[in-house]
Amino acid sequence: MKIELHRHSPLPVPEIICMGCWSETEMEHYIEEDKTDYIICYVIRGEVFYNGNPVWEGKGFWAFPDMQRECRTKDREKTELVWVRSKDERMRGIFDSFLADPYTLIFQYEYIPAVKNAFDQLVIMHKLETGYFDMYGIFVSLMQAHFNLIRGGCKSSSELYLQFSRRYIRDSIAGNLRIEDLAEKLGISQAHLYRIFKTHLGISPKEYINHCRTEHARKLLLESGLSVAEIGKAVGYSDPMAFSRFFTNQQGMSPSGFRKEYQR
Question: Is the pTM of this model over 0.70?
Answer without folding.
Answer: no
